[in-house]
C-alpha cells in the first residue's frame, strides 16, 4: 500500500529515526519484488533500451545473496501475488505510467530512467531456486505476511516500502544497505541502518502503535483516496514550513493529532467529518485496511518450512471492529471527550514559514485532482465489483490443492491469480516500436491456452479481458476462449506426455520437428521450440536469417560463462586471459583445427576452456552499448529491438504454460540465454555482412567446440523451419569525399573492436597480440 511521503519524512530525519546497524548472523525477511526492482535499478549494470540484459541482472542477484550468506544471514523471501479489486485503480495507473515511459525510452534517457524488462521476475525467481534461498509467493499482497514472518522470527525486514514504518517491525530500507561487506569480531557483516517503531512513538508522546494504520488511511494509500477526508483536514492547522510540501506537513500534523486518541475514538472523529451516506462504506474499507496491518496471518509459515506454533500464537490479535453507532458519532465522542483533549504540540518546528499557507496546501492537493463525484463512484464501483475471492483463505479454498501449493512455492506468475479472480490480463508494453502492433500480439495463442486451462472448471466458454497496447495507448480486448477439454482440477493427473502435447500443439510442433528437438539438451528444447514458433508466426515485422543467427549464436555465452566465469568487461577479460590467449594462439596456429560433424550432445561435451576463451574475445565487445547511442538518439534503431522483444513475449508465456502443466519440458532460464544489448549489436553488425552465417562460422573457426554447437543448433532449427527468409542489405550510400573513406577504413567496426569488417580473415598472425587468434584463417576450411 504505502503511505505517501512517509519515506521522505523519515529520510529527512534519519539521524533520529534510523540507527546504524551491522547485519549478520540472523534471519532477514525480504520483500521480494521490491528487492528485485532495487537490485535492477541500483546494482545491475544492465541496459534497458534493448529489451533486457538478463545475464547482468542474474549475476547481480547472485552476488547480492552470496554476500548475505557470507555474513551468515539467512534470507527468507516473500513475493506479492495477484492484486485485489481495491487496488485496481493503482494497478491501471502504474500500467499507464509504464506505457508512457516505454513510448519515449531510448539509450539517451537511460541515464535518468530505468525500465524493468519483461522477464525480470522470472530471472529473480530462477536465482532464488539456484541458490536454494527459501521463498514463497502470497496469493495477494505480501506486506502483512512479511510483517508476520518478521515478528515470528524476530527478524528485520528488508524492503523499500513505507508500510513497514508502521507495522511495528524492525525495518531496513534498502537504500541504507551497503553494497559491500566488512569484517568484524563476529565475522562478516553488511552495514545498514535500521528503523524501530519505538522511535516514532517516543517522538509523538502518547501515540500508540495501534493507531498507525489509521495514519496510512488519512494520509492516502493505494486503497482509499485522501481527498475523501478533505473536510477532516480542513479543520486542522498544518505546521508552517518553508521547506516542506503539503504532504510532509500533513504527516507531522496527523501523527500529532493521533497521539490524543485511541483507535476507536480516532475512527469516530474521522467518520464524523465524512458525508453521512458514505460513512458505512468508508468504515468497512477502514476496518479492512486497519486489520491488514494488525492481524498478521501466519499461513505463509508452512510453505516456508517454519512451524514454531508458540511463536505464531504471539502475533495473533483480535480483529478491530468499530464500537459505536454511525448515526450517533457525537455521542461516541462525548464519552471520550477527555481522551481527545489536544496536547502540546511535540512535533519539531523545522522552519518559520514566510506566509500562512495551511489552507492553500489543502486546496492544492498534488495527489489527486478527482472531484467528489469521481471519488464516490470509485468507492461504489469497488464495493459492487468486489472479486469472487476477497481473502487469501477463500481463494485457496476455491482452487485445486496442487495449484495453490505450486503458487505458494512461487512456480507461477502473478497474472495467473488475476486471470482467475478478474478474468483480466494487463499486457504491459516493453521497449518496443510503438509504430507497430504490440509485441505481445504474437503470443496471444499461448495466452488464450493458459486461460482456457485456468477457466476450464467453469463448464462453459469464458471471456478474457486483455488490456493491450494499441498505438500509444491501452485498449481493452475481449476474447471468448473455448473451454479446455482438460479439467483444471485434474490437470496434473493426466500423463506428462499428454501435458507436453498441449505445449507442442500451441507451438505448432509435431512429428519430425519433435524428433529434431530430442537431439538438444533438455534445458534448450522449450527455448528452441519457442524460437521456431516465433519465426513462423506471421505477425509483423517479418523475421529473417539474421534474427535467427543472433538468437542461436547468443545461446553460446551460457556455455562460455560456465567454463570461464561471468566476463563482460574487456579490460578485466584481457587482464585475466591475455597470456592464455597468446598460448592458445601459438598452439592453434601450429595445428589445423577442424570442426567435425557430430551430434549436439557430443559437441557440448567436447567444449574446452580454450574454446570459450577464444569465443569470449569475440563476444565481449557486443555486450557493451555503443557510446554514440547515449548522446545521439537518432542512431538508436527501435526496429531492431522489436522482433527480439516479440520473442521474449513468446518465451515468457510458453515458460508459464509449461509451469502450469507441471514442467513437461525442462525449465528454461532466460538469465543464461538472453542479453538484449548483445542481440542488438549482433544484428546491426550482421546486417552489414554479405553472408552472416559464413561470417559467424569464420569468427568461431578457432573455437571448434563452440562452432560445432552453433552449427548443430542452426541445422536443427533450419530443418524445422525449411526455407528461411534472407535479410536484404540496402544499397550503400556512396561517399563523396575520398579522405573520409580512407579514414573510415582505419576505424574499427562500430560494435566490434576485434574484427576486420570483412568476410575474409587475415592470414597475418602476431603472437604478441592476444586477439590475433580471431583473425587467423586456420580451421576455416574445415568448418565451412
TrEMBL record:
Region annotated Disordered, chain positions: 339-391, 727-752
Biased composition (Basic residues): 730-745
Extent of Acidic residues compositional bias: 342-384
Family: Belongs to the asteroid family.
Name listed for the protein in its UniProt record: Protein asteroid
Source organism per UniProt: Fopius arisanus
Amino acid at each position: 500500500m504505502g503511505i505517501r511521503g512517509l519515506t521522505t519524512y523519515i529520510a529527512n530525519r534519519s539521524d533520529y529515526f534510523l540507527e546504524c546497524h551491522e547485519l549478520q548472523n540472523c534471519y532477514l525477511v525480504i520483500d521480494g519484488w521490491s528487492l528485485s526492482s532495487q537490485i535492477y535499478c541500483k546494482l545491475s549494470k544492465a541496459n534497458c533500451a534493448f529489451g533486457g540484459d538478463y545475464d547482468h541482472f542474474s549475476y547481480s542477484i547472485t552476488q547480492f545473496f552470496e554476500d548475505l550468506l557470507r555474513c551468515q544471514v539467512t534470507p527468507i523471501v516473500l513475493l506479492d501475488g495477484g492484486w485485489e479489486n481495491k487496488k485496481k485503480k493503482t494497478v491501471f495507473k502504474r500500467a499507464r505510467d509504464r506505457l508512457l515511459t516505454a513510448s519515449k525510452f531510448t539509450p539517451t534517457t537511460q541515464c535518468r530512467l530505468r525500465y524493468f524488462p519483461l522477464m525480470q521476475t522470472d530471472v529473480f525467481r530462477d536465482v532464488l531456486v539456484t541458490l536454494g534461498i527459501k521463498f514463497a509467493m502470497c496469493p495477494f499482497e505480501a506486506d502483512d505476511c512479511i510483517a508476520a514472518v518478521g515478528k515470528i522470527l524476530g527478524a528485520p525486514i528488508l524492503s523499500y516500502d513505507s508500510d513497514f514504518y508502521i507495522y511495528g517491525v524492525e525495518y531496513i530500507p534498502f537504500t541504507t544497505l551497503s553494497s559491500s561487506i566488512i569484517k568484524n569480531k563476529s565475522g562478516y557483516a553488511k552495514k545498514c541502518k535500521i528503523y524501530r517503531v519505538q522511535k516514532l512513538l517516543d517522538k509523538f508522546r502518547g501515540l500508540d502503535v495501534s493507531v498507525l494504520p489509521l495514519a496510512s488511511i488519512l494520509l492516502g494509500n493505494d486503497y482509499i483516496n485522501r481527498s475523501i477526508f478533505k473536510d477532516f483536514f480542513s479543520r486542522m492547522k498544518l505546521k508552517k514550513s518553508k521547506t516542506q510540501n503539503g504532504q510532509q506537513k500533513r504527516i507531522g500534523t496527523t501523527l500529532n493529532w493521533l497521539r490524543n486518541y485511541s483507535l476507536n475514538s480516532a475512527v469516530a472523529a474521522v467518520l464524523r467529518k465524512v458525508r453521512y451516506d458514505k460513512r458505512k462504506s468508508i468504515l468497512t474499507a477502514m476496518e479492512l485496511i486497519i486489520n491488514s496491518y494488525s492481524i498478521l496471518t501466519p499461513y505463509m509459515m508452512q510453505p516456508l518450512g517454519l512451524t514454531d506454533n508458540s511463536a505464531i500464537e504471539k502475533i495473533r490479535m483480535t480483529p478491530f471492529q468499530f464500537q459505536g453507532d454511525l448515526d450517533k458519532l457525537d455521542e461516541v465522542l462525548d464519552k471520550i471527550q477527555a481522551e481527545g483533549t489536544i496536547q502540546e504540540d511535540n512535533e519539531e518546528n523545522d522552519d518559520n514559514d514566510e506566509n500562512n499557507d495551511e489552507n492553500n496546501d489543502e486546496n492544492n492537493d498534488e495527489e489527486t485532482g478527482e472531484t467528489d463525484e469521481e471519488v464516490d463512484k470509485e468507492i461504489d464501483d469497488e464495493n459492487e465489483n468486489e472479486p469472487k475471492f476477497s481473502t487469501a483463505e477463500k481463494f485457496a479454498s476455491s482452487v485445486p490443492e496442487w495449484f495453490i501449493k505450486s503458487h505458494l512455492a512461487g512456480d507461477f506468475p502473478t497474472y495467473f491469480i488475476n486471470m482467475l479472480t478478474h478474468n483480466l490480463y494487463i499486457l504491459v508494453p516493453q521497449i518496443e516500436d510503438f509504430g507497430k502492433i504490440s509485441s505481445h500480439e504474437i503470443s496471444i495463442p499461448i495466452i488464450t491456452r493458459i486461460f482456457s486451462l485456468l477457466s476450464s472448471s467453469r463448464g462453459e466458454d469464458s471471456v478474457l479481458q486483455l488490456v493491450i497496447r494499441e498505438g500509444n495507448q491501452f485498449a481493452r480486448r475481449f476474447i471468448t476462449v473455448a473451454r479446455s477439454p482438460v479439467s483444471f482440477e485434474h490437470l496434473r493427473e493426466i500423463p506428462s506426455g499428454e501435458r507436453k502435447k498441449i505445449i507442442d500443439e500451441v507451438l505448432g510442433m509435431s512429428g519430425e520437428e519433435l524428433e529434431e528437438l530430442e537431439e538438444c539438451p533438455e534445458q534448450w528444447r522449450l527455448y528452441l521450440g519457442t524460437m521456431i514458433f516465433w519465426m513462423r508466426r506471421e505477425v509483423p515485422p517479418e523475421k529473417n536469417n539474421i534474427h535467427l543467427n543472433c538468437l542461436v549464436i547468443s545461446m553460446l555465452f551460457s556455455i562460455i560463462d560456465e567454463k570461464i566465469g561471468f566476463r563482460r568487461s574487456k579490460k578485466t577479460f584481457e587482464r585475466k586471459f591475455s597470456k592464455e590467449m597468446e598460448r592458445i594462439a601459438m598452439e592453434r596456429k601450429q595445428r589445423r583445427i577442424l570442426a567435425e560433424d557430430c551430434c549436439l550432445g557430443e559437441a557440448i561435451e567436447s567444449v574446452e576452456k580454450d574454446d570459450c576463451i577464444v569465443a569470449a574475445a569475440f563476444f565481449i565487445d557486443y555486450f557493451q552499448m555503443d557510446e554514440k547511442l547515449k548522446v545521439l538518439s537518432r542512431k538508436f534503431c527501435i526496429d531492431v529491438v522489436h522482433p527480439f522483444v516479440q520473442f521474449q513475449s513468446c518465451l515468457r508465456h510458453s515458460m508459464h504454460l509449461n509451469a502450469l502443466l507441471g514442467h513437461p519440458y525442462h525449465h528454461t532460464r532466460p538469465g543464461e540465454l538472453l542479453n538484449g544489448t548483445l542481440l542488438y549489436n549482433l544484428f546491426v553488425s550482421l546486417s552489414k555482412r554479405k553472408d552472416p552465417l559464413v561470417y559467424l562460422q569464420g569468427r568461431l573457426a578457432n573455437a571448434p567446440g563452440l562452432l560445432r554447437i552453433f552449427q548443430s543448433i542452426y541445422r536443427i532449427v533450419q530443418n524445422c523451419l525449411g526455407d528461411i527468409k534472407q535479410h536484404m542489405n540496402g544499397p550503400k550510400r556512396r561517399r563523396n569525399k575520398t579522405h573520409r573513406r580512407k579514414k573510415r577504413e582505419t576505424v574499427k567496426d562500430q560494435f566490434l573492436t576485434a574484427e576486420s569488417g570483412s568476410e575474409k580473415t587475415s592470414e597475418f598472425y602476431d603472437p604478441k597480440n592476444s586477439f590475433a587468434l580471431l583473425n587467423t584463417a586456420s580451421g576455416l576450411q574445415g568448418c565451412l
